[in-house]
Structures are given as C-alpha cells and as structure tokens.
C-alpha cells in the first residue's frame, strides 16, 4: 500500500501530479486537486514521479507494508 | 572500492540524477559537488514568496530520500576543471577526484549588466538562496527599484517588490514583458495588470549605464533618460556554467550539447560513453521538436533529463545488453512552466515562444483565459491564466512527436 500526504497549505492546484498519477490525483470542476490518500503498490512509481514534479513540493509519500 | 559516479552541481538536476541512479539499480558510490553551501533546494519560490521576508533553507529544501542517504554531498566546493580523457575533475583547492562516470549538472548563472555591478552595493542578481536573502533585505517599502529585464524573473520580482510597497520600474528591450513566451495578446494583458498595481514599464530600451560609484544611485537608459533608484535587479538572462569543461572535446556553445540519451557529445558528434549532462546546462534533442538540440530552461526539465541520463548510465555501468534499445528510445519531455504574479497564475505547456501566432481558446483576455500557440496548423504551446483543467486538455496536442523544428536558443 502506498500512503500519500499533501500539504494543503502548499498545494496550488497545478495538476502536475494528475499527469503523472491520474489514478491517484485529479482536478475537480473547480480546478482543485483531489487525491486518494491510499493507493495500490502498483501506483508507487507514478506517485514518486508526482512527488518529483510538484512545483510546490507539496506531496509526501509514506510507504506501508 | 570502485570509483564513484561524480555529479557536478547540487541543485535539482544533481539531486534527481542521484535519486534516479539508485532507482535504476546502481548501488555503487555517488559523490555530488555543489559550489553553494546548501543542500539541494527549490529555486522557484526565490522570486516570489522568498522576497517578502527572510526564508530559511529548510523552507525550500528538497526532501532527502532514504535511497540516497549514502550519497556523499561535498557542498561549498567548486569544480574548476575536468579532464574527460583522464576521467577526473579538479576542485578549486586543487584536489583531483577520479570518476567512473561524470554527470554535468552545473546549470546557469545570471548574466550581469557589466563586471562593475558584481558586488556593487544595491545591484542584485537572483539565482541562489543567498541572492534572494540579500535582495529581500533591500526591498523595503518606498525603495525605488529598477528591474533590468522583463522576462519571468523580472516580472515576478516586480510583483513581489510592488506588494512589499516598493516603487518599481521594469526596463525591457522587447515591446512587451514576457513577449516571447506569452505572445503579444497575453503579454499585453499581464502588463496592464502590473500597471494597474502601480508598476511602471520602460519597454523597447535597455539599461545602458549604472549610476553611482560606491552604490547604485540610478540607471541611464539607451535613450539617454535617467531613472534614480536605490535597488537595481539584473534579470537579463542567463549564462551556462560550462567554463570548467574548457580544453575538453565538447560542444559548449549555448549549452552543453548531448545526444537524446543525455550523453555529452564530442565536436565530431560522437558521444562520450561516460559523461552526461542534465538540466539547464544541457542542450539536447527533443523528439517533439524534430530533434533540434536546444536547452530548455524550465523547471521540469532537470527532473526529466536526470531520469533519462541516470537510466542510461545505470544500464551502461551494469553492462546491461538492453542499453542500445534504451538509447534508441525517443526522448520527448514536454516543457512546462508556470509563473505567479499577484493573483495571476500562469501555466503553460510546450514552447509558445517558437509560435508565429496565438489564438484565444477559452475565457476572456482581461480575465482568466487560455491561449493556443501555433506554427502553421501545429499547436506548439498552450498557456493560461487560471483555467488549469482547460490548459491541461491541450497538453497531449503540444506533445506530439516531430511537430516543428525549433531554433537552438529556445
């Protein structure tokens, strides 16, 4: 299981994460980022890429077995 | 003990290179040299929030990952020269460091108006955390600030300084600020919003002379007029940090030329097998733009190029038979940029700067809006103020292979 945390005080809804991990992150109708705080292990690479590309560096990845 | 992979440059490109080497299976030693005293940190906030008050390194530092805990960070050490044939680099103190492979991630430094302004009290350039700290101290309410350069950095600093309460004049050689990347319609709209907030523009001219012997007292423009000021910000572009590679068989004109695997090329076009370049310093072929080599100074490029370089390098170090196939893969990172000025949030994909026309796709020019940028019928870029979902809809369209060859200085 991949556990994800987003610092909402930092996030500015760029949506870069949506491109890298569309199963985990999305932009809603108001252009606000939404995400699932837990994802399958198969999403690990995508979520890591999302962490890397976030311009605000607002995403953190917490791994759980 | 085997020789290390040496990474020169400890900013985003250097960090991502080290991380991606580990992710790609390389478990051997990695040494990273950085001339700044700081561990890798994020630069975009430096022209924005960081100018409003003192910013700590911790507030902008990139998180360090467990996988790179054993990387040797040699910070505050400048690499002065390299011997690519002999596989070693030399520090400013004269220490020779032998490497198994070299990753060049030395990036850019700000161009200065003249050698005289370097160190002149009141004159600032902005690239590093320490630069931002020094400029932040000078941006006090009421201060008269001239910004030489009307690109993104210049305009972001203008917005930050204005919000602090400075008197701000932007001097730009083009007819409109950010004209290249935004096109005339959007650039004009953004300039109006700056003017509404009290920023003055002197466009179509440039700073010809800096007044003041011991500290900045003003500037003289090319048209002969003078602007008194206490603070001068030089945001007139950048220079690639490649001088330390002089004397080696490389092509360092307008950035260090590489192949699409990010391997540094010799003058005859053949790659060095064990020398890579990533980030702003690299001039690489991008399959989206017909493989014309160009250096692309956008924030996402260090990450993309570092991942590409490290994957190739790790396979090569492991004698992986799959290497030729990976080297032959198309490399087509989509440039993206953003900019925050007041409540104006710009987001773009592609290279609007190479377009010959722009078209309004959504919204209204004076409010939130999205523009598409075209060469002929090909969409080469999309940029919006707000409306992010709308901007993103066009990302695939501007990412198609082989769209349009671009000039070498995009």
* Net shape of chain A: globular
Question: Measured on Cα atoms, how large is the radius of gyration of chain A?
Answer: 11 Å
* Rounded radius of gyration of chain B (Å): 22 Å
* Unreliable stretches covering 5 or more consecutive residues of chain A: none
Query: Counting H and I runs of at least 4 residues, what is the number of helices of chain B?
Result: 8
How many strands, what sense, and barrel or not for the largest sheet of chain B?
6 strands, mixed
- Quickly give the structural class of chain A: alpha+beta
User: What is the general shape of chain B?
Assistant: globular
Highest CATH level, the class of the largest domain in chain B = Alpha Beta
Q: For the largest beta sheet of chain B, what order do the strands appear in spatially? A: 3-2-1-7-20-19
Low-confidence stretches of chain B are none
What is the averaged pLDDT score of chain A?
Answer: 91
């Amino acid at each position: 299981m991949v556990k994800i945390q987003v610092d909402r005080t930092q996030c500015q809804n760029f949506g870069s994460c949506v491109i890298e991990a569309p199963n985990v992150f999305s932009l809603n109708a108001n252009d606000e980022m939404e995400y699932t705080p837990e994802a399958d292990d198969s999403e690990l690479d995508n979520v890591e890429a999302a962490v890397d590309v976030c311009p605000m560096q607002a995403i953190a990845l917490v791994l759980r077995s | 003990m085997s020789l290390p992979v040496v990474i020169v440059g400890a900013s985003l490109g250097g960090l991502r290179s080290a991380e991606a080497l580990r992710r790609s299976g390389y478990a051997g030693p990695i040494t990273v040299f950085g001339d700044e005293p700081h561990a890798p940190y994020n630069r975009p906030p430096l022209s924005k929030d960081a100018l409003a008050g003192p910013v700590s390194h911790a507030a902008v530092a990139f998180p360090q990952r467990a996988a790179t805990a054993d990387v040797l960070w040699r910070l505050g050490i400048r690499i002065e020269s390299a011997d690519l044939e002999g596989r070693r680099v030399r520090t400013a103190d004269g220490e020779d460091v032998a490497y198994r492979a070299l990753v060049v991630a030395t990036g850019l430094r700000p161009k200065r108006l003249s050698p005289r302004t370097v160190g002149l009290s009141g004159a600032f350039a902005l690239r590093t955390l320490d630069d931002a700290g020094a400029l932040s101290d000078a941006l006090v309410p009421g201060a008269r600030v001239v910004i030489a350069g009307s690109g993104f950095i210049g305009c972001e600093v203008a917005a930050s300084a204005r919000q602090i309460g400075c008197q701000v004049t932007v001097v730009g050689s083009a007819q409109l600020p950010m004209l290249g990347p935004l096109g005339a319609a959007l650039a004009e709209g953004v300039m109006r919003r700056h003017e509404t907030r009290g920023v003055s523009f002197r466009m179509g001219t440039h700073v010809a002379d800096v007044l003041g012997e011991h500290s900045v007292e003003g500037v003289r423009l090319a048209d002969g007029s003078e602007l008194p000021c206490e603070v001068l910000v030089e945001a007139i572009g950048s220079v690639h940090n490649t001088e330390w590679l002089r004397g080696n068989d490389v092509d360092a004109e307008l950035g260090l030329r590489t192949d699409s695997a990010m391997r540094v090329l010799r003058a005859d076009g053949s790659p060095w097998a064990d020398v890579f370049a990533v980030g702003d310093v690299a001039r690489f072929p991008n399959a989206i733009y017909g493989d014309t080599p160009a250096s692309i100074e956008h924030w996402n490029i260090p990450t993309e190029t570092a991942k590409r370089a490290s994957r190739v390098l790790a396979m090569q170090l492991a004698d992986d038979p799959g290497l030729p196939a990976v080297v032959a893969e198309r490399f087509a990172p989509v440039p993206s940029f953003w900019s925050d000025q007041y409540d104006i949030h710009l987001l773009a994909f592609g290279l609007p700067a190479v377009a010959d026309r722009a078209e309004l796709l959504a919204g209204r020019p004076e409010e939130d809006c999205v523009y598409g940028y075209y060469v002929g019928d090909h969409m080469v870029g999309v940029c919006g103020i707000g409306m992010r979902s709308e901007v993103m809809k066009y990302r695939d369209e501007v990412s198609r292979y082989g769209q349009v060859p671009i000039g070498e200085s995009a």
